[in-house]
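re: that chain from earlier
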Amino acid sequence: MSDRHAVTSVPLHDLLATRYSTRAFDPEYTVTDEEVTALLEAARWAPSAGNSQPARYIVGRRGDDRFDRVLAALNDGNRGWARHASLLIVAVRLTANDKGPMPRSGAYDVGQAMAHLTVQASADRLTVRQMAGFDRDAITTAFALADNLEPLTVAAVGRADDPKKLPGDLRGPDDAPRVRLPLSELVL
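^ sequence. v structure.
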């Protein structure tokens, strides 16, 4: 496996510099109840506009009905590898509450919550890979979500495994050096 440490212009905390989104999950590893709680607590304490806290979660553990319903909603490309993850977590945005519509920043706030969850996962030697390739309507139907709940992303969570165990078409990206645009292209 290649070095997964990010090449940065200045040193970053190891939790950030070593984080990467693998598709190779250890199918034998089971995330503990304490680890799940820590992930969700990290997400819960993420900042949100006006403390609106729009993030909601559906958590499925490999082998349970919730996991199977989320897995069924993934596109074919994601389903093949995500089935080995310990958890599938759907990040859901609350779009309105009893006071009316939630702030426009709700999707951003859910993203921050998932970033906090991801850093906590790294601290616990877990890995997270988020996916946009899923059927939102299938999730809404499978979990009877109310009209004010919008599925935004699905995260596979577990212990990383050797990428050489992945099928050839998936192995390359997991074994390649991490690449990002330079800061000069990101700062306007």
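Residues 14-158 form a domain with the NADH Oxidase fold (CATH 3.40.109.10).
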